[in-house]
Amino acid sequence: MTESRMHIEAQATPEVIKAQLQANAAICEQLGAELRQQPPTGIMMIGRGTSDHAGVFAKYLFEVEAGVPVFAAAPSVAGVYNSQLKLNGCLAICISQSGQSPDIVEQAKRAKAGGAKLVAIVNVTDSPLAQLADTVLPLHAGPELAVAATKSYLASLSALAQICAYWQQNDELKQALTNLPQQLQATQKAPACLHAEQLQNLRHCVVLGRGFGYAIAREIALKLKEVLGIHAEAFSSAEFLHGPVTLVEKHLSVFNVHIYDEGSDMHQRQLADIQKRGAHIVQMPAPEAVHRRLQPLAVMQRFYLDIEHAARQLGLNPDAPPGLKKVTETH
């Protein structure tokens, strides 16, 4: 069976991240020094789709490790309602593979006009977004031709982790990042978590995680929709108990994203309660040997390979999700 673009690109992730971390070390050293000299009062994350999901990871990462509040931009505030936010003292981090979606570029312009320092995490370094930024952090992912993003998402997460490590002068996280490419290669060789037979007749499901697990749950749900056409919604496992848990009475399938960190025990208790209520649990555990802040990347590495393989087993083309294209031009 011919390898799909999605598979090839997901497989390339460890080498992409290894090259990225080396190439961007000096940039992150300088950016970290600037952020220590003038600590931001808040961080606005700008992105759509998969890049927006990377912003959820950033929220947990920077709020836990740096103590700085993080909030998601609403691009329509600028693009539709023509409103200018007051962002003096804030850092704006814009994530985009292409760097050319009109609404994202406009939001970045407005963030700078409002007084924010703009960092662009972008794959295309001569793009309109990169030209706007005060600091450009290239993804170094190379061409990404598959419609379903894989390596660019994981490279976005590693870029955010590298910013955090240098900003906070966290030597443990720096070393963990150095080890990450090899650990992702090991994850690629690990047994699959998802199989075609689990997904064949699935029409609806939820993806649950806590904290950093929830941070990737939204991306998992998106890929279940994009690649397999399964209606999937992501929740924090704590939030799920406040109403949506009634869905499990109908034997709902629940994808359990388990990160071994400070929230692990609470998450396990919540999932045990959900299972008792009748949910069918699909386990997606992180490898415990990986640093707790980087475990989400290992989960996503395994998931991307699993869902691509399942799609082909089910007769679907993971490179051609119906109705989707690589760059979405919303205004």
From TrEMBL:
InterPro entries: GlmS/AgaS_SIS, GlmS/FrlB_SIS, SIS_dom, SIS_dom_sf. It comes from the Bacteria. GO terms for biological process: carbohydrate derivative metabolic process. Keywords: Aminotransferase, Repeat, Transferase. GO terms for molecular function: carbohydrate derivative binding; transaminase activity. It holds the Pfam family SIS. Residues 31-173, 195-331 form the SIS domain. The keyword Transferase applies. This is Glutamine--fructose-6-phosphate aminotransferase. It comes from Pseudidiomarina homiensis. The lineage of its organism: Bacteria, Pseudomonadati, Pseudomonadota, Gammaproteobacteria, Alteromonadales.
